[in-house]
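User: My instructor asked us to take a sequence, write out its structure as tokens, and then describe one feature of it. I'm not sure where to start. Here is the sequence I was given:
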Amino acid sequence: MGYELMGTTEKACPCGKSLIIESRYMDDWNRTKSDYEMVCETCRSEYTHQEGQWVKLVDWQKKAVAVQRYNTKRLSVEKLAAEELADEWYQHFAHIKTKKGFYNAMAEDTGAGLTISRFNKEVAGKSMEETIKLLFGEMLRSWGPEVVAEKISSKNEKIIAESESLKKLFAEKRAAEIEWYKMLRR
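Assistant: Let's start with the prediction itself. The structure tokens for your sequence are:
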């Protein structure tokens, strides 16, 4: 019931002094997987197998660090926005008394990408307050705090400043990803 070795392939490592061994496996349901072994000690410390090929570890780490910095900052800005914008979000929609009215106002006001059927599934059995909280969290995650602040016309300086630094980190992350994918094509 486990994977069975189907074959191995050997090829030269990047420095040319040793080998890379690829072992291919298949199970009873024709699912496949491959394992890669860098035999060369020198190349093993300088390369990593990512996205189907061997790449320099430093190149992989540059991308990974940029992505991690952005993700960490985004989480901290989302947390700050949850604290700073929640009251404004609730006040923005406080005049609405029904969930359908809330959906209509939110869709019109914010251009939310929720369909009415998904909205109804998400909020089934929830109070209006829970509905507003749920959708505030969803908007923060999907749009980002800077867009939520803009949509409800917030003038919160902390969010604006943090959003600007988040945009810079996003640009750095994007540049690192572009470099990474260019490097993979070489």
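For the description part of your assignment, you could build on this observation: Residues 4-50 form one domain. Try explaining in your own words what that tells you about the chain.
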